[in-house]
Write a structure and sequence with these properties.
This protein is an all-alpha fold and 68 residues long. It has a domain at 24-68. It is 91% helix and 0% strand. It contains two helices and no strands. It has helices at 2-20, 25-67. The chain starts with a helix and ends with a helix.
């Protein structure tokens, strides 16, 4: 019985050590930050694309007006 309780204790210690290990934590945080930056950039580009399209349409209309 004592051997079993020692084995259980040792396994619980290994689980405790594994849960407190923070080696990969930095990479996960960097991945989350990069994902948020990509999401923000995508959202900003969609709005910017609309503005650029409108500007080119206005330039095209102005050129057509003066050349007609």
């Amino acid at each position: 019985m004592q051997k079993l309780s020692v084995k259980i204790y040792m396994n619980l210690q290994r689980v405790k050590e594994a849960l407190s290990d923070e080696c990969g934590q930095d990479m996960v945080e960097y991945a989350i930050v990069m994902g948020l930056i990509a999401l923000g950039a995508t959202t900003a580009m969609k709005g910017l694309a609309t503005l650029i399209g409108t500007a080119f349409t206005n330039v095209g209309n102005t050129v057509n007006t003066y050349t007609s």
